[in-house]
């Protein structure tokens, strides 16, 4: 456990006292300091006196939409943002990620998963240089060695990616849960809108990663915007050992 002096402060924006209590308890158990806000307005007022390292924002708030609250928080503070939602439609989650959220958790949630997401966001935001030097990206049971373009599946099988496929996956693991435009993924400023090469590469990568490439769960197409890599990515720098449990 961290000492109170060094504990990260997590603001919880949740109008349901029972849910808020669960979140507060699990975060406290793992060494975080918490500040509970019952509404978006309550959070915005509290931001005058506290500087949270991360805000957990429920999309269903009583006084304003969670997306609006998130945008107003993003305009005031550089803290991390984790969306908490019971909404089933992926469009809500995609919109939140597009507007600046770092990740999301669906209700009902497993408390330890929530802690893992919080830790992952804080690591990504604090250790950019460390992330760049890391060589092993782990996500959804897969392990990707950025040094030799080797992909290890959840059963331990090894797959060697082409250079084009590896560069595409590198872009995704370095920017998980963010919409990436086709131009960024192609690495070209002069990409012709009719050029479908990126779509072919996406299709090939999906066939390797997705159990059902026709109904992908990791690489999502965001029509009119680009592609979204829906995964929590953990980093390690040596071998193919599993990253430390979070």
Question: Would you mind describing this structure in some detail?
Answer:
- By secondary structure, the protein is of the alpha/beta class.
- α2 (40-46) packs parallel to α3 and α7 (163-174) packs across α9.
- β3, α3 and β4 form a beta-alpha-beta unit.
- The chain has a 5-stranded parallel beta sheet, sandwiched between helices. It has a 5-stranded antiparallel beta sheet with strand order 9-8-7-6-13, with no helix packed on it.
- The model is unreliable at 1-5, 128-133, 188-194 and 239-246 (pLDDT under 50).
- It has helices at residues 17-29, 40-46, 66-76, 90-98, 111-126, 128-133, 163-174, 182-186, 197-209; strands spanning 9-13, 33-37, 54-58, 80-85, 103-106, 136-139, 142-145, 150-152, 158-160, 179-180, 219-222, 226-229, 234-236.
- The chain is 37% helix and 21% strand.
- The chain contains 9 helices and 13 strands.
């Amino acid at each position: 456990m961290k000492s109170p002096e060094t504990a990260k402060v997590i603001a919880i924006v949740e109008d349901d006292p029972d849910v808020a209590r669960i979140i507060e308890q699990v975060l406290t158990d793992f060494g975080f300091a918490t500040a509970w806000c019952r509404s978006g307005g309550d959070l915005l007022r509290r931001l005058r006196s506290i500087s949270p390292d991360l805000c957990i924002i429920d999309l269903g708030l009583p006084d304003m939409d969670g997306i609006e609250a998130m945008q107003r928080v993003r305009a005031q503070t550089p803290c991390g943002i984790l969306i908490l939602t019971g909404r089933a439609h992926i469009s809500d989650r995609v919109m939140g990620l597009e507007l600046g959220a770092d990740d999301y958790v669906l209700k009902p949630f497993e408390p330890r998963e929530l802690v893992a997401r919080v830790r992952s966001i804080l690591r990504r935001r604090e250790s950019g240089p460390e992330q760049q030097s890391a060589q092993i990206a782990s996500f959804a049971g897969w392990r990707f060695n950025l040094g030799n373009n080797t992909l290890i599946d959840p059963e331990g099988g090894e797959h060697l990616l082409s250079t084009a496929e590896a560069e595409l996956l590198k872009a995704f693991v370095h920017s998980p849960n963010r919409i990436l435009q086709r131009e960024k993924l192609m690495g070209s400023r002069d990409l012709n809108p009719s050029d479908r090469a990126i779509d072919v590469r996406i299709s090939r990568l999906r066939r390797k990663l997705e159990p059902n490439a026709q109904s992908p769960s990791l690489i999502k197409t965001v029509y009119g915007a680009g592609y979204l890599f829906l995964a929590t990515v953990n980093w390690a720098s040596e071998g193919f050992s599993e990253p430390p449990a979070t």
